[in-house]
# Entry
Amino acid sequence: MRVVVIANPAAGPAWRRRHTGELARRVQAIFDRRGVQGDLSFTTGPGHATSLARQAIADGADLVVAWGGDGTINEVAAPLVGSRSALGIVPVGSGNGLARELGIPRRPEAALAVALDGVDRTIDMGELNGRLFCNCAGVGFDAHVAEVFAASAARVRGFASYAATTIRELGAYQPGLYRIETDEGEEPPLRAMLITVANTRQWGNGALIAPNAVMDDDRLDVVVIPPRGPAAFIANLWRLFAGSLASLEGVVNRQVRCATITASPPAPVHVDGEPLGRLSTIRIEVKRAALRVRAPARA
# Structure
C-alpha cells in the first residue's frame, strides 16, 4: 500500500501543534513499525493541500491522509473524487465534524492507525456553486462567524475561541431574506439567521445541526434557523448538542438532492468552514457515493 500524508502544521490550537520535524519523526516511526511505504508533505497555505493531493493521485497513492482540520480535509478530499485513492483522516482541527461522524479517534497515532488498518466507506459529498464539501456548507450567520474566525485564526484557534467569536457577533449580525427552490418546487420567501446544508449530522464538536442527516443516503439536509435575539439564541444552544433543534419553533428541515438559494442582500457562505465570500445565488447538489474514506471497522 502506497500512502501519502498531507499535514497542515497550522491546524488546531497552538498548544496542540507539533514542530514539523517532530511530526515527521512520529509519522515515519509509525510507517517503519508497520512496514508501510509512505511519504509526508506539509502544506504552506490555502489550496496547497489540493495540489499535493493531485500529485499523490498522479503518483499512484492508494491512500491519501489529510492531517488537519475540516478545511484541510476538504482540500484533500475534492481531488480524490472519481480516483482510485481513498481518504484517511487525522483530525487535529477545531471542529472535526466529519471525523467525529465517522468515529475516527482524536489521538493522531490512533487516527493514523485507522487510516492504515480501517475499512473503506463510500459517502456522498455536497457541491455548492462548483465547490465540493464533505461535511456541511452554510449561508448566513455561521458563514459570517467562519469569516471572522478565519481572519483572526492566526492569533488564537480552538473551540473556545470559536464560541467567543460566535457570541460576540450575535448582536451585530442582521438576518437576510431568502428564497429556496428545491427539487419539489419554490418555497415562500423567509427571513433566516442561517441556512445549513448538511451531508452529516454535525457542524463539529458534537453540535448536531442536522440530527437526521445520513452521509450515504443521496440527500442533503437543508436546515433553516429563523432569526433569534442573542439571549434566545444562547438559551437554545443546548438543543444543538441534545439533537433536539428540530423541535424549536420556526426551524425548517428539508431533505433534497438539489436546491437553489437566493439571498437578499448577498449572504456570507462557507464550505466545510472555509469562507467563500458573499453570494446572492447559491446552487447546491448532492454528489452520490462520491468519496471513499477510511473509517473504523463497524461492530
Summary: The chain has two domains: 2-117, 131-288.
